[in-house]
Amino acid sequence: MLQEGDAAPDFVSTDQNGNTVKLSDLSGKRIVLYFYPKDDTPGCTKEACSFRDADDIFKAKGIKVFGVSTDSEKSHQKFISKYQLPFDLLADTEKQIVEAYGVWAEKSMYGKKYMGTLRKTFLIDDGKIVKIFDKVNVSEHAEEVLAAFGEK
Q: Which of 15, 25, 73, 90 keeps 20 to 30 A from 38, CA to CA?
């Protein structure tokens, strides 16, 4: 299980437009890697919109935000378009990133067990994990993240 202070696992993925995103290519930058279960669902939409609404602050502070789910590029495109999301969503359809970050796990809903993505956020600064949010308040998460980076 990853802990604060660990090196962030490198990955290669594609964003909503099919562009390659490699974490190690972003070394020296501050990154928000937020994992969420599914595009266009109530909690995930609130969380994405919280980051959208604070996007100017993130950009001004040089912080790059990436949302990650196991949804497809096409699903991400619809989600971005519907809510005018100004940041990239990574399509982890092969589950490589969710597994590397330990967020692919057994979940339970209405008594049924299934595998899914845990809602969890990693703050990465120059390749190191500086903060992990295990509990996420979807409506105020962007503010929590900025505060953890020492920004407001």
A: 25
